[in-house]
Structure formats: structure tokens, C-alpha cells
């Protein structure tokens, strides 16, 4: 069978299965917004960490990543909100400390 015909058959099977060959977990609006807030927090933390002295920057970025990974399996929306507020407070403190040090 030609590759083109095989691809055509695969597409037919995918269409019969609901149009997608990959199962995607749909997020409700609240979960979508929380996910966006977590990603924004992560970007902000990395941006502030980039201002740290070069010798501390790598370790700081690694600890930020570890903290995010540690909580990545959390599905409790209330806990996620708490972790976001805690994270915002921590990066605010880091930002202020770096400002005081002149970084």
C-alpha cells in the first residue's frame, strides 16, 4: 500500500474516533485562568532571578523550577490559589532584596 493511501486511511480512522488522535484534557474556565496565573508567576520569578548575581542565578532558577515541579500535580484549586499568593509574596521579597543590593 502506498504511503499516501496509508495516510488517507489513518486520517479516516482519526475522523471516526472523534477527529483527534490525542486525548486532551479540557480545562474549565476557572482551571484555565489558574493555569495562566501559575505560568505568569513562573515567568515573573525567572525574570527576577535573572537580576540576581551570576554566581547565585543558576541555583535560584533551579530552586524556582523545583518548587514549581513539586506542586505541579496539585489539582486542589484552593491550594493552587494559596500557592500562587505565597509565590507572589516570595518573589516580591526577592525583588525588594535585589533592589536593596543594587541588582
Automatic annotation (TrEMBL):
Its main location: mitochondrion. Keywords: Mitochondrion, Transit peptide. It is found in: Mitochondrion. Residues 37-92 form the Complex 1 LYR protein domain. GO terms for cellular component: mitochondrion. It holds the Pfam family Complex1_LYR. It comes from the Eukaryota. Coiled coil: none annotated. InterPro entries: Complex1_LYR_dom, Complex1_LYR_LYRM2. The keyword GTP-binding does not apply. Involved in efficient integration of the N-module into mitochondrial respiratory chain complex I. Belongs to the complex I LYR family. This is LYR motif-containing protein 2.
